[in-house]
């Protein structure tokens, strides 16, 4: 990969000749491409969606949430380095939980429960949009097929996650009478989990991306992940705001 392959929509790219230059580029990618900028999120956080549209978002997002442990298990399998595997392992517990403790997936199901969705239907993933399934499955495949460095780099959207969680908690509690603090526990917990995960991933790529080509690959991996997140919202907007729900997908009652 050459430096020219880092996407031109970000503006002229300076030489990625240091870890600092790479980190600056990564943060620019987040500033310009993270899905907090998507119109669907503005509708969601601004209280402009119906309950049915919020249900559709939560249902589809469950497919992403429930696939994160699969992705993390694949990342772990890429490393012979024991220390990296140990560090990454806590992510599985963060999402899957452990004996006697709940994880992020259970907290997300508490959200869908609170929205009135049948838990068995949510867990079946039968009603998710085709684009949601394709995008999330592509992400799981990416971390298994690209280099271990790129696999870790693709997870760095967590650098930008706390801000969107704060916006979501405040906006949804303020605007929707069917949302209460209890069902927002997933996002509250991620306010502390995501920064730890992001700090490790950023330190890892700063240390291990040692050539301009490797740093460009790191940047492209983050761009890929922002695309994975963005296209899910494109699909939600097309189906549930514009009104083009594909056959077999969830149809809100309201």
TrEMBL record:
Annotated protein name in UniProt: Pyrroloquinoline-quinone synthase
Catalysis performed (reactions): 6-(2-amino-2-carboxyethyl)-7,8-dioxo-1,2,3,4,7,8-hexahydroquinoline-2,4-dicarboxylate + 3 O2 = pyrroloquinoline quinone + 2 H2O2 + 2 H2O + H(+)
EC numbers: 1.3.3.11
Pfam family, one: TENA_THI-4
A single GO molecular function term of this UniProt record: pyrroloquinoline-quinone synthase activity
Family in the record: Belongs to the PqqC family.
Biological function: Ring cyclization and eight-electron oxidation of 3a-(2-amino-2-carboxyethyl)-4,5-dioxo-4,5,6,7,8,9-hexahydroquinoline-7,9-dicarboxylic-acid to PQQ.
Coiled-coil residue windows: none
Sorted UniProt keywords: Oxidoreductase, PQQ biosynthesis
Gene (UniProt): pqqC
Enzyme's top EC category: oxidoreductase
Database matches in SUPFAM superfamilies: Heme oxygenase-like
Species the sequence originates in: Cereibacter changlensis JA139
All copies of domain Thiaminase-2/PQQC, residue ranges: 24-234
Matching InterPro entries: Haem_Oase-like_multi-hlx, PqqC, PqqC-like, Thiaminase-2/PQQC
Listed pathway(s): Cofactor biosynthesis; pyrroloquinoline quinone biosynthesis
């Amino acid at each position: 990969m050459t430096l020219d392959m880092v996407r031109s929509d970000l503006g002229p790219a300076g030489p990625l000749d240091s870890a600092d230059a790479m980190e600056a580029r990564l943060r620019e990618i987040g500033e310009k491409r993270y899905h907090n900028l998507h119109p669907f999120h503005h509708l969601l956080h601004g209280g402009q969606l119906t309950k049915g549209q919020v249900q559709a978002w939560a249902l589809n997002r469950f497919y992403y949430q429930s696939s994160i442990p699969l992705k993390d298990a694949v990342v772990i399998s890429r490393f012979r380095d024991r220390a990296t595997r140990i560090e990454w392992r806590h992510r599985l517990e963060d999402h899957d939980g452990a004996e006697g403790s709940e994880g992020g997936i259970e907290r997300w199901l508490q959200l869908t429960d609170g929205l009135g969705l049948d838990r068995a239907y949510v867990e079946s993933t039968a009603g998710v949009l085709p684009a949601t399934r394709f995008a999330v499955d592509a992400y799981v495949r990416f971390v298994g097929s690209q280099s271990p460095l790129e696999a870790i780099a693709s997870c760095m959207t967590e650098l930008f996650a706390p801000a969107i969680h704060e916006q979501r908690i405040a906006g949804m509690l303020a605007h929707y009478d069917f949302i209460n603090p209890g069902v927002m526990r997933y996002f509250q917990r991620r306010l502390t989990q995501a920064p730890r995960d992001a700090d490790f991933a950023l330190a890892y790529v700063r240390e291990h991306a040692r050539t301009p080509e490797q740093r460009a690959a790191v940047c492209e991996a983050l761009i890929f992940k922002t695309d994975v997140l963005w296209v899910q919202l494109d699909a939600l907007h097309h189906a549930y705001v514009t009104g083009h729900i594909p056959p077999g997908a969830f149809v809100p009652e309201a």
